[in-house]
Amino acid sequence: MSDHLPRKQRGNELGATGATVAANLKRIRTSAGITQAQLSERLSQMGHPIKTASIGKIESADRRVEVDDLMALALALDTSPLALLLPVGDFDEHVDVTGARGSTALLWAWATGEHALTDANERAYQARSLPAWLHVQSDIEARRDYVLSFGVAPADVTDHIAVQVIGRG
Q1: Which of 101, 80, 103 is nearest to 90 (CA)?
Q2: Helix (H) or strand (E) run with residue 27 in it
Q3: At 93, phi and psi to the nearest 5?
Q4: SS percent in the chain: helix, strand, coil, step 5
Q5: CB 104 within 8 A of CB 118
Q6: CATH fold of 16-85, please?
Q7: Average of pLDDT values for 3-10?
Q8: CATH 1.10.260.40 occupies which residues in the chain?
Q9: Ramachandran area for residue 119 (φ above 0: left; ψ -120 to 50: alpha; else beta)
Q10: Residues 128-155: pLDDT tens digits?
Q11: pLDDT in tens, 22-50
Q12: Distance separating alpha carbons of residues 20 and 5, to the nearest angstrom
């Protein structure tokens, strides 16, 4: 295919996140000292085969990564799916993801469910973004830290949480 013709892919053009996944896959794979063939073999052993040539096409942004591929690649590389999805950069460097632009730190906080990218209610955003057990656990930890810091419990601390704090010594 000549250089002046657009790449042929189904659906939308490859966006900022697709390009980031391509670059991050190559960076993480090479820094781990894993060849494309070795990664392909790992994926096959996991039951999610991706041919060596296809890994090369992903890394050169000539092939899209589907959601199942992303999860399998993260597992095979012993990394987080977010490490493949999100741009790397300095804390306050502005980077692009598909549909948004922001500092690296803000985008990571958004992706991990800590902060909304918009002016949305943070608690509502977290409730939608985090599993209920993690959201409840963070509330328990925040209340425990409050008790440990100030020696008094806020009015809504349950007996269960107070027992956890007292039992900590």
Answers
A1: 103
A2: helix 16-31
A3: -70, 135
A4: 55, 5, 40
A5: no
A6: 434 Repressor (Amino-terminal Domain) (1.10.260)
A7: 50
A8: 16-85
A9: alpha
A10: 888 776 666 566 566 566 556 665 554 4
A11: 999 999 999 999 999 999 999 999 999 99
A12: 22
